[in-house]
Amino acid sequence: MALENLKKWEKELNTCIRCGYCYENCHIFKLTNWESDTPRGKLILAYGMINGDIEPTEDIAKKIFECFYCRLCEAGCSAKVPVTEILTDVRQVLLDDGFDVEGTHVEVDEDKCCGCGICVSVCKPEATTLKEENGDKLATVDKVKCEACGVCTVACPSGARELKEGYEVSRKELDAKIDKFVKEKLPDDAKEKTVTFCCNWSVFPGLRLSVLPFEDKESNKTLVTMCTGRVDPEMIVQAMRDGIAGVLISACPLGECEHDANYKTLRRVLLLKKMLQQLNIEPERVKLTWVDTNEVAKLEKEINSFSEEVSKLGTVTVE
Amino acid sequence: MDVARLKSIVGAQHVRDAIDELYVYGADASVHQAMPQVVVRPGSIDEIREIARYANSELIPIVARGAGSGMSGHAVPLKGGIVLDMKRMNRIIEIKPDDMYCKVEPGVVDDDLNRALKPYGLSYPPSPASSRIATIGGEIGNNASGIRSVKYGATRDYVLGLKVVLADGELVDLGARTRVEAAGYQVHRLIVGSEGTLGIIVEATLKLVPLPKFRCLSVAMFDKLEDAGESIADIIASGCEPSMLELMDDIAIKAVNTTLNMGLPEVDAIIFFEADGKVKEAIDYEITTMQEICKKHNGQITATSYDLKERTKYFSGRKKLFAALAKYKDGYACTSLADDMAVPYTKMAECARKIHEIADKYGVIMTAYGHCGSGVMHTKILMNPNDKEKWEGAKKAVEAIYDYVDKVGGVTSGEHGIALSKAPAWKKARPDLMKVMTKIKKALDPNNILNPDKLMDAPDDWYTATPIRYMIDKEKTAG
């Protein structure tokens, strides 16, 4: 059984003191609130499978395959255990042992995929390949390598790729959140409504579902889109059409994006601004800002000043 | 176990009994592990009352659980039964800034509460180091304290009132909302630190204090541990009110230098001391007084600052100590055993020396550090956890340390509680307390369903109380 291969992690798993600091910022845990969905819980399960206390099951595999690779567990770990590396290895071993379960990875609609291969070129973790079936090319996703950054979902010209529903980051769920926010009644003196799209790998604010590191303004909704290379101009236009007066995008600084995608965002935002101008919409309603890890205060400041600027512009009319 | 009944009480989505859930909920931050039969996440007081009534009638153990960050095995369900995961009940019910108290549900995370209090200029200060995940319910169950307890005290000093569900399902409202109370038994204070054995905490009224306006940190180096020890005792005796007073011994210093490359001077001991308050002049006075005391005992002041960034930098050696200890040597683990005894101030240095002596004798590595301002001495036993012989040494070292602590008038646990790991030594040291506690337990929980076999009822040998979490000689220590 491939589980034997995990014994190499025994020393690291012994180092884990099970303090639980790893789950403070875990998105999956914040969603479910079950300790078995925490990084600590998953390490305990891995340990149990290695020492023979428990047998691998489909339920265990499903848990282990749910991870957004934000590595905040490692950042919070008091014993500096390489949590992501261990759990990535456990995923591979479980897959090799026949537990081909669904996780947080990107989904491909095979009916829509035209086999162009653009997704392969934008996938930094090399989780996407093309396979040939009956002479047709089809994109596939490596369930272990895919970090669900979502960059491929915007790059795909056929709309064949999407982040899974159920984790609050699929396009449908993001749209629904914006829609709900648009319908919320604000106090009369509140500013125009804005939306801030944040990167999963920089300050990660929106995924801390229990509490934001700062008080979100009444007039702003902070949402995590995974990598900001996943922000589709269409999402921005859609938000404005729904009644959002301005969209702020908070991305990792250039050169620091783990998925080499923020420069794509920069290009898209520049093009979008030109397009907005042609539609007689103030391009200042869309702003791209660079916020590094731990720059929570900067993000808060950016949101506040952006909100002020957008309010001066008033409501937007998209024809 | 009638899982269907539990599902009907709290909803099917809040009950789990699959092996993966039970295995995870059988562990915490201690060396122990055992599996419950079911994990239940109640969402209301009424649900908890109904669960208690059912469990009491069927004699099923209930173990209430917060974040599972306890280091002595509080949340490990030794007798199986129901684990009540309280994290769903995480509402801050009300904050009364003018009356300086708040009401919270037990699943509120400590840091989340303090974040909510900040806009009012208030804080809930007895927070342990694990405040980022620790829940208020767990902190109360354990009477948690932390780095600033030297000035602000422990959880018990902040619990004004509690709502508790008793073993038979009865809901009782204990304590008050006022700062003082001279009205009958202070039963709510008894619940604090009872480790889930007397009742299930379902609501807490907590005292609040103003956030300090300024904080100043200073660092002193000592070539002799004894000089650091005398400085600590003198600082406390001087009437100064440090908001933090921490010690690191030479092993701790070497650990952060070798594993994290911190570049601390390799002296025999370092103490970190901090003062806080509203008036800068008063803080200056306190810091200067403490510095003079250190200098009198041959200490060298190497840093002092009010600036948050600088304070964080100076304190990072102590802050990152845990990570350093965990990585002390390849193949070693940092085990939580005999890790939080409290001793009189004048015995601090002697206690640290004794710990080193005992570690040498029994072939393990031990460091001494901690919240010396509160008299708490932390240690960790560093060893290869898969080596059975090392565990034999660790067992003897733990016993020798507790014998010493008892001899000098200290207590088995200053912070982390008794539960399983510390029960044998504590029972040996406090026979009178045990008798009274047993009577109280029988009166409140006659069927012994609430966190059974902990504290005075815990097994006499912590090593065989549950399977130890490590793969000792590739075999388990108990079945």
Properties at a glance:
heterodimer; A: 319 residues; alpha/beta; Fumarate Reductase Iron-sulfur Protein, Chain B, domain 2; Alpha-Beta Plaits; Rossmann fold; 3 domains; four-stranded parallel sheet; two-stranded antiparallel sheet; B: 479 residues; alpha+beta; Uridine Diphospho-n-acetylenolpyruvylglucosamine Reductase, domain 3; five-stranded antiparallel sheet; 19 strands; globular
Q: Give the largest chain-chain interface (CB within 8 Å).
A: A-B, 36 and 42 residues
Q: What is the typical, i.e. mean, pLDDT of chain A?
A: 89
The quaternary state of the protein chains shown equals heterodimer
Tally of domains of chain A: 3
Helical coverage of chain B, percent range? 25-40%
Count every beta strand of chain A, where a strand is a DSSP E run of 2 or more residues.
8
Under the CATH scheme, which class of the largest domain in chain A?
Answer: Alpha Beta
Q: Averaging pLDDT over every residue of chain B, what do you get?
A: 93
Count the strands of chain B?
Answer: 19
Domains of chain B (count) = 3
**SS strand fraction of chain A:** 5-15%
Any low-confidence stretches of chain A, pLDDT <50, length ≥5? 205-212
* Rg calculated over all Cα atoms of chain A: 21 Å
Global structural class of chain A: alpha/beta
How many alpha or pi helices of chain A? 12
Question: Would you kindly provide a written description of the structure presented here, covering whatever features stand out?
Answer:
The complex is a heterodimer of chains A (319) and B (479). Chain A is an alpha/beta fold and 319 residues long. Chain A folds into 3 domains: 2-96, Orthogonal Bundle (Fumarate Reductase Iron-sulfur Protein, Chain B, domain 2); 107-162, Alpha-Beta Plaits; 171-313, Rossmann fold (3-Layer(aba) Sandwich). Chain A is 37% helix and 12% strand. Chain A has 12 helices and 8 strands. In chain A, the strands form 3 sheets. A 4-stranded parallel β-sheet of chain A has the order 6-5-7-8, with helices on both faces. In chain A, strand 2 (128-133) and strand 3 (136-141) form a beta hairpin. In chain A, helix 3 (39-51) crosses helix 6. The longest helix of chain A is centred in the C-terminal third of the chain and has 18 residues, at 296-313. Chain A is globular and about 65 Å long. Classes of the chains: A alpha/beta (319), B alpha+beta (479). The interface between A and B is large, with 36 and 42 residues.
